[in-house]
Give the backbone structure.
Amino acid sequence: MKLEIRHETVYRYDVHAHHSTQYLRLTPPSTDHQRVVEWQLNLPGKASSGVDAFGNIFHVLTLDHPHDEIHLIACGVVETTDQPWQQSAGLLSPLVFLRTTPLTECDHALRQFAQPFAAAIATDPTTGLQQLAAAILDAMPYRKGETVSDTPAAMAFAQGAGVCQDHSHVFIACCRHLGIPARYVSGYLVTDDEGHVASHAWAEAWFAEAWHGFDISNAMTPDGHHLTLAVGLDYLDACPVRGVRHGGGGEELHARAEIRVIEE
Amino acid sequence: MHALTLPDARHHDEMLLASGAVRPHYQQFAEWLHSQTPAQLAEKRRAADLLFHRVGITFAVSGDESGAERLIPFDTIPRIVPATEWQMLEAGMKQRVTALNAFLHDIYHDHAIVRAGLIPAEQVFTNSQYQPAMQGLDLPHRVYAHITGVDVIRHADGQYYVLEDNLRVPSGVSYMLENRKMMMRLFPELFTRHAVAPVEHYPTLLLDTLRRATPKDNPTVVVLTPGPYNSAYFEHAFLAQQMGVELVEGRDLFVKDDHVFMRTTVGPVAVDVIYRRIDDAFLDPLAFHPDSMLGVPGLLSVYRKGNIVLANAIGTGVADDKSIYPYVPDMIRFYLDEEPILQNVPTWQCRKPQDLSHVLANLGELVVKEVHGAGGYGMLVGPAATQAEIEAFRARVQANPSNYIAQPTLALSSCPTFVESGIAPRHIDLRPFVLSTGQEVRMVAGGLTRVALKAGSLVVNSSQGGGTKDTWVMEG
């Protein structure tokens, strides 16, 4: 499947910021599942690029002149495959993805929730983890506005609702508690539903010598409709834009990602 | 005459035998001590207190909400190390630090020691101090720990044991330097009688180590501090001043075009080496702790490109973690094909069921520590604890065994120390500092001797009421 993506992010500040630095993970890598045909970034300044610890392509954008807006556009064409969602290990030991982070820490309730799935996962990891994913969506249905970008897994779970980020964090927290390495994936999802936000997040779990995908929010296995931007221990490692600025006062953020099928 | 309390025979005293006889390397000092009146010495101690206040060498106790600073007590009776003992200590520490640097290079590259089955993979890769960002990164001269503080103690058997390695941001070297200056000022005559190895050149060696940490010619070196509220701020300022380099905070640095720059009155200046006294988690808010106000946004991206040297490197904490400590002798054999010169303290790892049951059955006799803990917090000293404290700690260990290790209660050696009643033995440890450039490993002959000022106490940390002494390494 050939997909065309346009992802626009605009930050507007109440007053001038005099210095800002952003880490951008807005360039998809070519993987076992996707081939980047063309990609470009339109940024308000010169950015340097690199590859981070998790193999993600990132750019560092520093603006050291007064500015009250940062306008970022990422667009391009990517070809995806429909093969079963399996990714090979990179440089890092998958065991690294057993460690918890503040966003993916289990509390007592989460541990109790996860434990009953241990036996099923041990017997058949794919089926067991799908059951876990389904139970998570059941316990915390998709609902916007209940959580924010730094809501930890345990808190979202306690609130009983969340978005794809929260579902992924809860799934990852449970996996790690059960001794299954798990990681966060940020990317795009193409749906038939026009106007649906294309930015998406799901999770991958490590077993049988490969990373296997689980789209918890959509109760499905990621496929050719999914396009990976970045992976990491949690949202903070993989999110498309992470920045720090001096000055600027309050901020307004507009993000819009559009994705369209240009070839089935 | 001084009111002298003799050491008991159950531990080693650096100066005296239980009979009161003086060990040979303290003979000259003891003669001098007896020639001084208690009043004269009390006067010198008052002078020392006053001078330290004037210099401003103070220490804010971490965990103390008021942020109040207080003076770390300084004792004027030095700890004397004979030349032959120092030669052994120096060789042992250099060997250890060489192996630790090799270990760090290995676990961030090929994982040979894990593949060889010497250290379980999960011990390394699930360790919170293991930094994924370091995997595959090539550092100049393969040096991770440019500066290491190795804590050693002497047990009742007269042998030295390594208590822990400090490869993150070891502190205390300013006390080594200031204590010596103080002793030379108060008792100049002692230094004409004794051939004490000098320590004053430490800042020169440190600067040389930092400059050689980058392949760049004529590099710009800075000291990065968390700021005046940090308990070791005095030391950061002191070392920057002694080395003649800038002391900066995170907000003084910024990242642009793949380089780190320092804001100065004459415009941005490119920085090549950062002697950072900030923990990994706070170095770059875009890569680590997002709320950190102490670090430099974007620093990690420059580091991964090889355009800045951090001393010490990111991710060294995995090598000094208490859960990795038991494997250091194996590292020495594996990487250097040598037998360890300095011994480890026998350690039970509570994550192992067999070790755990031994520990739980003997809590009253053991020292139990958190694997990621530091500074004497979060530990149980069995013989000094009440039954209630032991039971409370038992519950903590049982709830999370892998978070704890245990060691026998070591009879730290003692050294005569001025106390209320006169002179009495107090327990001490020793932290020498090891500098690595990749081509050579260097030390100044000396270190920080910490002393537990409470009678019988084995906790020497300044945050727990410890003091310091000058450390004299005798020239052979």
User: Anything to note?
Assistant: Residues 16 and 225 of chain B are 42 Å apart (CA to CA). The domain at 346-408 of chain B is CATH 3.30.1490.270 (Dna Ligase; domain 1). The first strand of chain B starts at residue 58 and ends at 60.
